[in-house]
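Sharing a chain and its predicted structure for anyone who wants a worked example. Both blocks are below, sequence first, tokens second.
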Amino acid sequence: MRPALEHVGTTGGLSWKRHLYRTSAFRFSWHFHPEIELTLITAGSGTRYAGDRIEPYDPGQLTLLGAGVPHAFVSAAPGRHEAVVIHFRPDFLGPRLFDVPEFEAVGALLAAAGYGLELPAPEPTIHRLVALTGRTGADGTLGLLDVLVGLADGGPGRSLASPGYRSPDRPDGRRRMDDVFGFLHARYGEPIALGDVAAVAHLSPAAFSRFFRRATGRTFTAYLTELRIGAACRLLTESDRAVADIAAFCGFGNLSNFNRRFRELKAMTPREYRARFG
């Protein structure tokens, strides 16, 4: 799987793009683009990938992704899925707009989005974003600026990718990561050895370990564990399957190991997680 660079384009009559995306399922598509992306989930739940962070998403979640941040939104199950998605270049209204005093806070927000941000989404913000999908011309662009100013004034948000995360700069490195993430997403429930995934990247196990840690800021084993635990969280909240069955489905051959890793990442047991969020 090589999503690589995605061509976004613009909405007719605007220097940026907005749409209300409705579908039966968000499919896995690990991609990046030079545009900044603002995504508000309005229906459905699933898993969000941003840089080296894997987390569940639910309605009302607002994500701001800086230019070049690789990402994907994947539905947990077919159903009604909907999102407001806005793309804009950092210089869509000129190269210095966000340097002037009136918009310095917006410029700082967009800079922080280089690692991805999850932002507060109170009801007024949600309403403005949904309304933005129907606005055109100068009215629409002024509406986007109003939304960005409101987000900048609303707090710093929560950074998504880890501080040590660096997206591979070389095209061959990016293609390798595309292939690796696609492989892991498709097969995380199966036994995966370091050699298996190193072969996907066309590297020796030792070289792959160094490459992966440099690209994501963590070891391959830690990343795979996080991916599996994230999938388990979704099944715990959206199904009544037994914990042992979920552990096996998500790639844990040993229940006690699953419970131990789950507690390390979530600071609670799987059953406590289900009781709290299910």
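Comments welcome. Residues 181 and 263 are 25 Å apart (CA to CA).
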